[in-house]
Design goal:
12 helices, 309 residues, mainly alpha, elongated, 3 strands, single chain
């Protein structure tokens, strides 16, 4: 049972201290003892109690009472620091978040590089590439990888990068599709064949086969095809005549055209050479030598002198 002590009751107890020891009941004696304890606490000084109250108030203000709004990251960082999970949890976060870290550094890096292990004591992150090209790229981008990993972890946990031997990267296994629902069990229906088909199918098949398949061709198309065939045959006879109709010494049409082309080419080449020689001789001031067919005798015939024997 809770009892409230008012100020008037305390005054009566203080005014009658002598009668308390004689005829007061137990409840009144308890009130007197409580009053004396309070007075003794006041006499010891209020400074110490005030200082403790201020310290307690500051501590209570610093702590959260669970109703204040806080970010999830701040709460998680505080929890990690209170439980001494900072380094280990951050290391696990680096391994779990490696695809995001790699994509933040360069594209398609997570598809060719796997985060193998992380040493929380030394801050060493082991990476395994799948080709020599990506091994070289990891060595060149080590500083950027460390910065991206620490940015993701929120603290300086990664200090060095070690490139492991080339190996196959482990990709997450695809999710297995849900098993298809089992088909309803029951007697299997027999497979239908042409022999077991109903009579209507046989009647429709017989009617389809009875219809004659005629291919209608337009008269204009047929005449155009005949003219094309005739023209092609004439061109073929001109280019490739029957060898029996040619004389023994007469060349074929293709040979005649090739021979005529060679003659024209030789004549053109000879005329070009003669003209070039004439122009060169004219520039040098030497005598002009005409071709064999057009050469004229301009010099007198040489005289031969000899002794009469």
């Amino acid at each position: 049972m809770t009892e409230t002590i008012t100020g008037s009751q305390q005054d009566r107890d203080q005014e009658q201290p002598d009668t308390a020891s004689g005829g007061l009941s137990g409840v009144d004696l308890a009130r007197v003892a409580l009053h004396q304890a309070r007075e003794a606490a006041k006499t010891r000084g209020a400074s110490g109690s005030t200082r403790k109250a201020k310290r307690a108030s500051r501590t209570a203000g610093a702590r959260r009472d669970g109703r204040e709004v806080a970010r999830f990251g701040a709460v998680l960082q505080g929890l990690l620091a209170d439980r001494a999970w900072d380094i280990a949890a951050a290391g696990g976060g680096v391994l779990d978040q490696w695809p995001d870290i790699a994509d933040a550094v360069t594209a398609n890096l997570s598809a060719h590089v796997t985060a193998a292990a992380f040493n929380t004591e030394s801050g060493q992150l082991d990476l395994r590439p799948d080709s020599p090209a990506y091994a070289t790229q990891l060595r060149l981008l080590s500083a950027r990888i460390i910065a991206a990993a620490n940015d993701r972890a929120g603290t300086q946990v990664v200090r060095t990068i070690r490139v492991l031997a080339i190996g196959q990267t482990t990709m997450p296994e695809p999710r297995t599709p849900a098993p298809a629902p089992a088909a309803a069990t029951g007697p299997e229906a027999p497979a239908r064949t042409r022999d077991t088909a109903p009579p209507g199918f046989h009647r429709a098949l017989a009617a389809h086969r009875a219809v004659p398949r005629t291919r209608e061709v337009s008269l204009d198309i047929a005449e155009a095809a005949a003219r094309q065939t005739r023209v092609l045959r004439e061109l073929s006879q001109q280019a490739f005549p029957n060898p029996e109709e040619l004389a023994d010494e007469q060349p074929a049409p293709i040979d005649r055209s090739a021979l005529q082309w060679r003659r024209d080419f030789a004549a053109t080449e000879t005329a070009a050479l003669h003209r070039a020689r004439a122009e060169r001789a004219q520039r040098s001031g030497a005598a002009i030598f005409l071709p064999q067919g057009d050469r004229r005798r301009t010099d007198p015939a040489p005289t031969v002198s000899g002794r009469a024997g």
